Amino acid sequence: MNEPRRKPRVAVVFGGRSSEHAISCITAGSVLRAIDREAYDVVPVGIATDGRWVLEADDPERLALGGSGELPAVDGERAAIVLSPDREHTDLVVSEPSEPPRTLGEVDVVFPLLHGPWGEDGTLQGMLEMAGVRYVGSGVLASAVSMDKAYMKVVLAAAGLPVLPSVTVTRHDWERDQLGCQARAEQIGYPLFVKPARGGSSIGISKAHDASELAGCLEEAFRHDPKALLETFADGAREVECGVLQSLDGPPETSVPAEIRIGGDHEFYDFEAKYLPEQHTELDVPADLPEEVAKELRTLAARAFEAVGCEGLARVDFFVMPDGSLVVNELNTMPGFTPTSMFPLMWEATGLDYPALVDRLVKLALARDTGLR
């Protein structure tokens, strides 16, 4: 008598060591709530802020953003969990004090809902490649390039895609030659934005209106990353985004574009405007764009996805300039993924709802192997 075929086991991995830990937890709560439990065996795996991997509670509500803005976090005191390094047996092994290790069985695919360094930047993807475990999203190179805004611009520009002028300044550069760094900033002109080169969720980003504010903006960026990107201010630009999904047997698919309109006293789309409920940011899904501009934007989004070598999913962010021209701002290989995040909202407006989107991404991951491809 044949044993019943087991469901694919999906390890939902979230949290992490980056400054986007809380956002990752919020994203994971949404995915845990939406994933089809009839189709998949789901294991929530949290990475605490100190890097400890734990078997988290399967409790989406605990991972939600609090009503007054309290941010969730992984409980690092829970039982430790590791992924077996044996490529022949990709087991999840749980270790608790005074108890022998126990296995949860093999994991078929990892859904890495990590944002920022040590998760979205190719480091986790490299570990999973070495372990021979399939995973959702882009591989090592595309993840690393997209995480580093400076190198991302180099790749996009080489592919003929429009990007804003920028320069990079490291902490070492600044400590060694402040006058030289100031001269490089003058080359692109003020006002300008100063960003952690490998950050996300607008954490650590500030606007230098003139040279007197450069030092303070760099220090804020260096709190999160020893490498900062100085980028031209896109005066009068509209912020428009587009979702991209890999196709099993054809070119990447794109969503309808959507626009972010920032309210209140925010000069740009900062962390508070993105995530805190009392802010007045509005999302127009779809964006009110001329048909030819929307079509070109979707074409450029697919080109950017392929230029960097993305897999699975990405959100491509654009500036629509006052004259209607388009500039690629950045790619996110693991964009915000709550039901109210821009990426799922764009796909819902395109005809793919949140549970179906989660299911599609898992199926894409199960359909591909690890290694060179």
Automatic annotation (TrEMBL):
Keyword Isomerase set for record: no
Pathway entry: Cell wall biogenesis; peptidoglycan biosynthesis
Subcellular location: Cytoplasm
Coiled coil: none
Enzymatic class: ligase
Main location: cytoplasm
GO molecular function per UniProt: ligase activity
InterPro entries: ATP-grasp, ATP_grasp_subdomain_1, D-Ala_lig_Van_CS, D_ala_D_ala, Dala_Dala_lig_C, Dala_Dala_lig_N, PreATP-grasp_dom_sf
Function of the molecule: Cell wall formation.
Domain ATP-grasp: 153-363
The entry's keywords: ATP-binding, Cell shape, Cell wall biogenesis/degradation, Cytoplasm, Ligase, Magnesium, Manganese, Metal-binding, Nucleotide-binding, Peptidoglycan synthesis
Protein name: D-alanine--D-alanine ligase
SUPFAM superfamilies linked to this entry: Glutathione synthetase ATP-binding domain-like, PreATP-grasp domain
Reactions accelerated catalytically: 2 D-alanine + ATP = D-alanyl-D-alanine + ADP + phosphate + H(+)
Required co-factors: Mn(2+); Mg(2+)
Family stated for the protein in its record: Belongs to the D-alanine--D-alanine ligase family.
Organism (species): Nocardioides taihuensis
Superkingdom, natural source: Bacteria
EC number, UniProt record: 6.3.2.4
Pfam families to which the protein is assigned, alphabetical: Dala_Dala_lig_C, Dala_Dala_lig_N
